[in-house]
Amino acid sequence: MSAVLVIEDDDRIRLALQLALEDEGYDACGAATAEEGLRTQRRQPADYVLVDLMLPGMDGFECIRQLRRDDDVPIVVVSARDDTHDIVAGLEAGADDYVVKPVAIKELTARLRALRRRARPVAPADPPGYTVGELRISPQAGEVFRGGVAVSLTRTEFRLLCELAEHAGRVLSRQQLLQRVWGYDHGDERLVDVHVGRLRQKIEPDPGSPRHVVTLRGLGYKLQR
């Protein structure tokens, strides 16, 4: 049984989410503050963490950053704030996905199942790696090197890079990437844009003028050979 930690200061919403998740077969626990949630996750790590942004004391953005520093647990923002700036900021802090309240539990659990599929090891490639310019990518080992230096990526960033590398030189639309990397038939394309931006920060010599992951305006992204 997968465990979910719900970090939400509204007692009513937190309890409702816990009960709904338990009805869907998850083992759910809750925390009313970011500090409590961080302690809980360190003491008894959950398989997924849901985080509200408007938390007392430490806010949800900083909570996500600290969670991400500790481990690679899948993180989903669950917030009433649906402004583009907030969504992008939550994803840039390190969240894997963003769900707007009020939450449809079937949609939320579908997102969690997609996260679980993405958490599985990437199938070995044939050949067992990709070389694109100064990048060396090993799907089997889960490793990326840039100019001989190891690059630390999240699961989602790694899967995104592998998908682009598998189709190096070809343009992949945002919807194609949502389906292949996130496992969503439909979804918010901002997920792709933010994760591409984070990936560029780690693999590009100059993220402001990317030479590896390039944008084809109106079409999508491709990894330059």
Automatic annotation (TrEMBL):
Gene3D superfamilies: 3.40.50.2300, 6.10.250.690, Winged helix-like DNA-binding domain superfamily/Winged helix DNA-binding domain. The keyword Transcription regulation applies. InterPro entries: CheY-like_superfamily (IPR011006), OmpR/PhoB-type_DNA-bd (IPR001867), Sig_transdc_resp-reg_C-effctor (IPR016032), Sig_transdc_resp-reg_receiver (IPR001789), UIM_dom (IPR003903), WalR-like (IPR039420), WH-like_DNA-bd_sf (IPR036388). CDD domains: REC_OmpR, trans_reg_C. Residues 127-225 bind DNA. Residues 127-225 form the OmpR/PhoB-type domain. Residues 3-116 form the Response regulatory domain. The modification 4-aspartylphosphate is found at D52. SMART domains: REC, Trans_reg_C. It comes from the Bacteria. The keyword Phosphoprotein applies. Keywords: DNA-binding, Phosphoprotein, Transcription, Transcription regulation, Two-component regulatory system. This is Response regulator. It comes from Micromonospora echinofusca. The lineage of its organism: Bacteria, Bacillati, Actinomycetota, Actinomycetes, Micromonosporales.
